[in-house]
Amino acid sequence: xxxxxxxxxxxxxxxxxxxxxxxxxxxxxxxxxxxxxxxxxxxxxxxxxxxxxxxxxxxxxxxxxxxxxxxxxxxxxxxxxxxxxxxxxxxxxxxxxxxxxxxxxxxxxxxxxxxxxxxxxxxxxxxxxxxxxxxxxxxxxxxxxxxxxxxxxxxxxxxxxxxxxxxxxxxxxxxxxxxxxxxxxxxxxxxxxxxxxxxxxxxxxxxxxxxxxxxxxxxxxxxxxxxxxxxxxxxxxxxxxxxxxxxxxxxxxxxxxxxxxxxxxxxxxxxxxxxxxxxxxxxxxxxxxxxxxxxxxxxxxxxxxxxxxxxxxxxxxxxxxxxxxxxxxxx
Length: 331
Prior knowledge:
The longest helix is centred in the last third of the chain and has 19 residues, at 262-280. It is built from 8 helices and 9 strands. Strands 2-3-1-4-5-6-7 form a 7-stranded parallel β-sheet, sandwiched between helices. Helix 3 runs parallel beside helix 6 (262-280). It is 27% helix and 15% strand. It has helices spanning 33-41, 44-47, 93-104, 125-142, 167-177, 262-280, 286-296, 319-325, and strands at 57-62, 75-80, 109-114, 146-150, 181-186, 210-216, 239-242, 246-249, 252-255. It is an alpha/beta fold.
């Protein structure tokens, strides 16, 4: 694409100032409680009484998934850029995503797409393109739509001067309109801490064919890093979820403090709800699932009394209400 420097092709899991990886805390009593509260905050417990995502398939494009987080019965397929086992994770980030997703929607099938991780912690953008292509192929082979879960990001369409018509955006639009692959992205951790409200989203996760999920803290306030607004389509994030504390990471649990797992850990919560919506109401237009997620979200719970807010989108996800909203949703 003629872009200068290798850094233009790299993304990092927590690529924002002040974000950190904490200690592993596998032996701490009550491990997993923070994740349980996060999911209760979006009413996953109520949604699971309707369904648990049975029959839906989520393709996770990330650093791989440690097999402990997704049982063999739920593994639909796997792909890796370097030929290694996609059900291994040398970084840990993909395991966080997979662990959250499976906990929230244990009936959903999972495809692990392992993109190469480079020595400096970056991810191959070309590998992301190949992974999306693999998911499109799986949608054809399996003859059913696939949710593309992406919590890592493609960094180079990041400037307002960059064109929005990148190959990845065009592919996502075509796959969406063909009812093959629906895209669920993390909103991004690139909000400028000193300039809150700056529109700093990446291009692909702020196009109108993407579900983009932002981050709240345990007190339902926007996390300091969570991107606001959208570069290509202003109404992003679509909605928000909470993140904090001890979360899955690699082969165990990591204490990520009050920052939580960033928007990366909120995206699989939305993807799980999307799987439940598709399980309950298969065959709908993808725009209707997005509309149902928006119309059921609650901004009033966050002290925001408007239909849309740049920091919280349509509001806090309400999983059970999103499922019930699909029949009356319009794109």
